[in-house]
From TrEMBL:
Protein name according to UniProt: Protoheme IX farnesyltransferase
Gene: ctaB
Subcellular location: Cell membrane
Protein family membership: Belongs to the UbiA prenyltransferase family. Protoheme IX farnesyltransferase subfamily.
Catalysed reactions listed for this entry: heme b + (2E,6E)-farnesyl diphosphate + H2O = Fe(II)-heme o + diphosphate
Miscellaneous remark of the record: Carbon 2 of the heme B porphyrin ring is defined according to the Fischer nomenclature.
Annotated membrane topology: Multi-pass membrane protein
Transmembrane regions listed in the UniProt entry: 37-53, 59-82, 103-123, 129-150, 157-176, 182-205, 226-247, 253-274, 294-313
EC number per UniProt: 2.5.1.141
GO biological process: heme O biosynthetic process
Any single GO CC term annotated in Swiss-Prot or TrEMBL for this entry: plasma membrane
Length: 318
């Protein structure tokens, strides 16, 4: 552990020294926002809006989505600032702007805090303070609870920390209606339950990376076999949970088909991950589950968006 700690400290010192001699451009600052994650935040938030209030004022909707996106980007930026030391020793993240020496940590911190404060303030003024409070809580949870505490202290980091990534539909619903209802809570639950099998599938493939960085991901703490079992267990819960919008009446016929077929696909891959214990085939199927899980979540939310936003809703439940 001392060797790892010294290595991380040395990496951080070297990267800080490099950063003082360099300046990033607009693309580097944009990369700090984790644009792929930010897209998921905006997309799930949009669905939360549409199922709640499809006739919302477009200007309010646009401002709310923009502020939710900025708040999500601020979370990503502050996460990169805090995790610069471990990002520097992981092959998946060592080219990020701070460890690559393109952005100074102080610049990233100031940028992230400014975006966080601005997004919460503007959302509160443009919409309501319930939505602003939920956005502030989301940023706080991701940066402080997940990044600063859970990520480096417990293999349950992804499970608990997943709440932050699941909140955008709830924030969006509050922004356009002034309250939180069960439909957005169900969307929150789906994303929350989806997160562990999604990230643990990647963790099985990248376990050596996480071990090098000293992050207690589930495969490195409980072992690969236990992780595979937990992936299967969460997927067994996720598949029927994905059908709940149909039972509640806001998921239509198309959603019922997509959620059923997609849930069965997730289960089939999770079973394969559980059965294949070692070697290249095991890594390959874990990578397939990771990729399919992204498609699965996207299709669920895209179908809800099409049904409620574009008039394709055909109810299953009377």
């Amino acid at each position: 552990m001392n060797t790892l700690s010294n290595s991380l400290t040395e990496s951080r010192t070297q990267n800080l020294d490099h950063a003082r001699l360099s300046q990033g451009d607009v693309s580097d600052f944009f990369a700090l926002l984790k644009p792929r994650v930010m897209f998921l935040v905006v997309f799930t938030a949009l669905v939360g809006m549409v199922i709640s209030h499809p006739d919302v004022n477009p200007v309010l909707a646009l401002v709310a989505l923009l502020m939710i996106a900025v708040g999500g980007g601020a979370s990503g930026c502050l996460n990169m600032w805090w995790d610069a030391d471990i990002d520097a020793v992981m092959t998946r993240t060592r080219k990020r702007p701070i460890p690559a020496g393109k952005i100074q940590p102080g610049e990233a911190l100031a940028f992230g805090l400014t975006l966080a404060a601005g997004s919460v303030l503007i959302l509160g003024l443009a919409s309501n303070w319930l939505a602003a409070g939920l956005l502030a809580f989301t940023i706080f949870f991701y940066v402080v609870i997940y990044s600063m505490w859970l990520k480096r202290s417990t293999p349950q980091n992804i499970v608990i920390g997943g709440a932050a990534g699941a909140l955008p539909p709830v924030v969006a619903q509050a922004a356009v209606t002034g309250h939180v209802a069960w439909d957005s809570i169900v969307l929150f639950a789906i994303i929350f339950m989806w997160t562990p099998p999604h990230f643990w599938a990647l963790a099985l493939v990248k376990s050596s990376d996480y071990e090098r960085a000293g992050i207690p991901m589930m495969p490195n703490v409980a072992g690969a076999d236990s992780t595979r079992f937990q992936i299967l267990a969460y997927t067994v819960l996720l598949a029927p949970l994905g059908m709940v919008p149909v039972l509640m009446g806001f998921g239509g016929l198309a959603y019922a088909i997509i959620s059923l077929v997609g849930g069965l696909g997730m289960l089939a891959l999770a079973i394969q991950v559980y059965r294949l214990r070692q070697g290249e085939p095991a890594m390959r199927v874990a990578q397939q589950l990771f990729g399919f899980s992204i498609l699965y979540l996207f299709l669920l939310f895209a179908t809800l968006l099409a049904e409620h936003g574009f008039g394709f809703f055909h109810p299953v439940m009377g």
